[in-house]
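I hope you will forgive my troubling you with a question about protein structure. The record follows directly beneath this note:
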Amino acid sequence: MSNEGKKGSSRKTFIMFLLAFLIGFFVVSVVEVIRSSFGPVGPDVQTASAVLSGDATRTPGSFADLAERVKPAVVNISTSKTVRTSPFRMPMDRGIWGDEFFERFFGDMPRREFKQRSLGSGFIISHDGYIFTNNHVVEQADKILVKLSNGREYEARIIGKDVKTDLALIKIKPNDSLPVVEIGDSESVRVGEWVIAIGNPFGLEQTVTAGIVSAKGRVIGAGPYDNFIQTDASINPGNSGGPLFNMEGKVVGINTAIVAQGQGIGFAIPIAMAKTILPDLKSKGKVTRAWLGVSVQDLDETMARSLHREDQTGALIADVFRGDPADKAGLKTGDIVTQVNGKPIKDSHELLMIISTLHVGDRVNITFMREGRERTVQVVAAERKDRGEWISTRDPAEGLGMEVQEITPDIAKYLGVPRKSGVVVVEVEPGSPADEVGIQPQDIILKVNNARIASIKDYIRELSRKTGKNSLLFLVKRGKATFFVAIRIS
């Protein structure tokens, strides 16, 4: 190559290098201008991430800080009670033959005693040792032992309990001031919000699980005041009575029930219900409820059509008890309650929940439909005695000592049974004829006197029939077992 060619090649290389340098300098200058105008990118991304992690509608980065803050107010509860049982059957086995069958052949043999132990959870609501838990955790316990998160143990006593809501208030005497939970607002909880459950599943202390609120207002046949929060946060035996926290660290529910056949389906009592009955539990040891003196049921399509209703909303009055507040106010069988104090009523369960919040002596405006005309009367709530309620039905056969209701879709899913497979028992009065033969809540009545039961209407019809006998024959389904029991009637 000539000298002139070499000089030309070097000149081109220099020009290319210079252009590359100028372009790089320009890019760096532009980036610096952007950084100086808008600030560094990294901190902005971190700030956005921090905002999102604090948003209850987004997946939290960690539950650790929240769990660490609220765990000290959560307690483990262990109970024991002495049970006397027949030597012929295992504890809690209520067979269809009963003890009389064996005693007839073997005589009156002595019963054996054993200690029955159970585990549960609870949470501290006052610095001086008041604790909320489930009634079924402490019911009939001879001894209740509460263990705090720091390992200290105290013996507790029952202050008050309520079977219908499955809530109990217990008390310990601490050596110093205790950490307490902060009570939240279960009414404002939204489906899809994050929650955490803390408890004592299978004896594994201070276990934290997380999930979301899956649904609200669930009716599962656990009692007449069903209004559960459903969650997919893992809840297992031993979690009963423990708190369900929102992402602010406030209690919005009390973990109570699970679906044995499924996973990720747990239920918690709304804390609003617990707050409502707390004063009575603390001062009286029991809950004094309002009573208006009627039984009600839902409207189905056929009933609505026959009553000239365009929809099935409202609660149909099936019975008015003579001399009680509703009777004095002029309500009659066949009236359809549509509003209470101006609040629209969707069905009989919603009416029951509203009435459960009333106090004795409250004046309540009942709006109802009668023969196509809307009317309003004022009813003064009386004290509810231990009898019928605003429930799906009242026993036509007096003295059975149990209450039943229709199997709703939620109850069917919870119990794992078909929708029209009978009626479900929601309450059994201790010592009643139904209790003596072993009927339990969540049992399903399939037949009465060999007539198949598919609804409340069928149940009422069969109980009302005059059979000439002094007993009723029930076909009962409990879990996977089916058996007959005969209940004596007066």
Q: What stands out?
A: The first strand starts at residue 74 and ends at 85. The radius of gyration is 32 Å. The longest helix spans residues 3-38. The chain has twelve helices and 27 strands.
